[in-house]
Every structure is written in structure tokens, then in C-alpha cells.
What we know:
By secondary structure, this protein is mainly α. It has helices spanning 2-37, 53-57, 63-89.
Amino acid sequence: MIGLIGGPLLAAKIGLSGLFYLLALLGFLAMVLSGLFFPSGKPPQQEEPQTGMAQILKHTDLRPIYLATFILSFILNLFFFTYPLSWTNLGLEKSQ
């Protein structure tokens, strides 16, 4: 909610390019703080057994998740890439 209200106000004050520079600075600051203050991970004590793709696909409980992920990726691909390309085949310009 703060971003919805503060974003346009801040963009009016520093401009849209200034907003992107501010976001880049905050992102860099977040990476530096994460590198300095988060503890380093400990290496695993023992190696995990390696499983093949066939063994992973055998889990029937995960099949709905696999299917949902495929459908979501397919629909996003359709609407962001394929569908707009079909508009250009119909004679519409990219700006429309």
C-alpha cells in the first residue's frame, strides 16, 4: 500500500529515471547488507543421494504441481509472446 501511494509521489518529485536509479541503489544496498550480516551457510555433513529424473517423476503426489506449472508457463508464453505475434500477422501495428 505504501508503494502504491509513495511511488507516484516520489516519481513526481525525482522523475521516473530517478526512481529507477533509487531502486538500483536500494537493490545494491540490500546485496551489500546481505553479504555482511547474514551468516555463511555451513557445508552439508553428508552428501545427499542423487536421484534421476525418472525417480522424481514417479512421485504421484507431485504430478498436479508439475501439470499446474506446465499450464501456467504455457499460458504466460501464449499471452506474452505468441498472442501479440498473431496480431502483427493480422495487420495490426506493434504500437496498437
